[in-house]
Amino acid sequence: MDGLPQALLAEIIKRITSPNDLNSISLVSKLLYTVEAEQRESIRVGCGLCPATVTSLCSRFPNLRKVEINYSGWTVDNGMQLDNQDLCVLSAHCPMLTDLTLSFCSHINDSGIGSLAGCKKLKSLRLDSVSALSSTGLLKVAVGCKSLSTLHLVGLKKVNSVAWLEYLGREGSLEELVVVDCKGISQYDLLKFGPGWRKLQKFEFEIKGLVNVVQPRDHAYVACYQYKYDFCCESLTDLTLARVVTIPEIGLRCLLGKCKALQRLCLYYVVGISDNDMITLSQNCNNLTSISLRLEPIWIFGPEGRHVSTPLTNDSLKALALRCHMLQTVELTFAGCEPMYPSEIGFTQEGFVMLIQSCPIRDLVLSGANFFDDVGMKALSSAQYLETLELMDCVAITDTGMRFLAHAPRLTNLTLRKCYGFTDGGVTEVALARNLESLVIEGCPRVSHKAVQGAAKSVKYKVGYPGLYSLNRG
After folding, report:
1. Total-model pTM
2. Exposed, middle or buried: residue 127 (CB in 10 Å: 0-12, 13-18, 19+)?
3. Fewer CB within 10 A of the end CB, N or C, for the chain?
4. Which residues contact 471 (CB under 8 A, 6 or more apart)?
5. DSSP 251
């Protein structure tokens, strides 16, 4: 290959995406070593990266655009971590850098992060568990990185003021903002993003751990007064809120009435969500294609007294069915609902069937849906667009329901977890009738490994099941 023109070699190498393949090519000859290094635009390094190699890496790969440094699982036996000085070297020697991810880099603080201000082309910054970083460092990035459009903050414990956020709202051009498990940033702080909401296309705010219905509170809250919520988010297409408390204050729940361009919505255990919110959402968001609702029972106070139930009812499903005619992906997860108390789920089978009969749903996840039985499976069998189905902890489904599913016209991917009502016969009938691409069986004790072997092009079988937390749904 050394006889080929260097430009042609470069074109060949551009089409190779596997890092292992690229590393192998670089060992063939000096020419390929040089050409591959010039064409390499991304690297991902972990605990094996020691500070002494940073300069040599930057020298070898002068055109790096994407760098990921991940020290997850690091121990002192792995040697020294990248520190502030090393990050300065990286910033200075990678003028083309547009995308940087730092994970579990415990030796980098505000000083090191501040050196990123010299990366004028930096568009995407993801910071995960950078324990020494504070608001001061984020402000330096906000001021210096004028091209920044994507910012992910995960597990940053020392960030507790939002001058950086206010600056980005006024002067920045963020299109994607993700804030996960940052205890010093409350939903009321995020409302200070102000004009920045107008440009934002993706927003995620997630609180880890137990829901705290007492703190934090918006100290400037005045009942029925919307002064905090007078902003536009007309570009927002992707919204995720997880374990957010929105009572008595509205907080980030106000977004549900503002996002007219919304296409993907994830609401995970949001306290304060109601049917009125979903009705308003359906009236504004005709382009909604994906919705994920994870609900758990709470105390509901009504005219007939109080009872325990998930906060949304069939009124929400009806609103989605009537107005969201582009809905293709649906997840309904119910956590902590006991089968012996069906009223703990506000939805009924009739409401759910109305939804699947009204929308072109292609991908469906039902978890803990105690109301769903063989009658519901019969309705699913006539879903014209359904391609991928996951049923988890749906205890009322029997072999009869599985046989109905065998008639679903487009079903190609089936996942069954922690379901006890059906046997080998029901599952194999579906698999053989539908010529499945993939079949996943986990924690279904009446279904044997032997029975499902060869039942689909790809079969995964486990005696146990992962649970909601392992699936990141808890």
Report:
1. 0.91
2. buried
3. N
4. none
5. G
